[in-house]
Amino acid sequence: MSTYLPTIKQLQYLVALHEHGHFGRAAESVFVSQSTLSAGVRELESLLGVTLVERSRRVVRFTALGEQVVAKANRLLREAEELSDLVQAAGKPLSGQLRMSVIPTIAPFILPRLLPRLRKERPELQLLLREETSQDAIESLQHGRSDCVLLALPFDTGDVEIEHIADDRLYVAFPKDDPRDPPREVSPEMIEPAIQGGRLLLLEDGHCLREHALAACNRSELRASASMIGTSLHTLVQMVDNDLGLTLLPEMAIEAGILAGTEVVARPIEGNSAKREIALVWRKNSPREADFRLLAEELRAG
Fold this sequence. Notes:
Elements: H1 8-20, H2 23-29, H3 34-48, E1 53-55, E2 60-62, H4 64-89, E3 96-102, H5 107-121, E4 125-131, H6 134-142, E5 148-153, E6 160-174, H7 188-196, E7 200-203, H8 208-216, E8 229-230, H9 233-241, E9 246-250, H10 251-255, E10 265-268, E11 275-283, H11 289-301
Parallel strand pairs: 3-4, 3-5, 7-8, 7-9
Antiparallel strand pairs: 1-2, 5-11, 6-9, 6-10, 6-11
Helix pairs in contact: 1-2, 1-3, 1-4, 2-3
């Protein structure tokens, strides 16, 4: 057995370098100088007696063995964090640091209501937020960068624990004076001309709401062209307000006032399937399960 073992700090430096692919950005992410991070990685390589990273002026490239070591380091760091969580979970509920990833089609509509109340009612909780697309958020959860994720289902989350927060109905947003005079509820068939005419505006790839919207239109197979893509819900609303097409919006965005200052008209899609499920997910067997269920209660109350 080796007398010397890698330190947690050395593994953190290596994982940060792998994630960012740049010594400067990696150092910033772990709050050390570039020289400190570089020295830590070299010490790790010297300790193991192997080269993990090929360095050049422009490129940071991991060796095949380096990739394997990073994968193992991710698992070790996650175990170390769970050990810390185990101790913390024995203390006061919903206290200490908790890292939560939130998708962009939820964050601006829930967090402004939730955060002030949490600061008041849970002053010992330090909630650290990351806004990420669904895929990136699940990867952050799997690699231990986040403790839990607030996202919308259905989505392939892998093997996780799930706590239901709410159902979020989907609406069609029309320009003012749309010639079809939208009824109180819109059928998927009514959206078909917009799809055929290239006027259904959707979020870019990576946002799960894009897939939920297409499923609500009974067109899950559709792949949008570049002319149909927006970068955020607020951008899509402005595009609709300028009569560039129609889009689909979640009810929580409408209730939060996303249509304020526009002449856009929104109507719900008919049918029980035109919705998404808002859920909080976390890794199975996490020692902070009780904290996450309490956080889910706070989210439902908001």
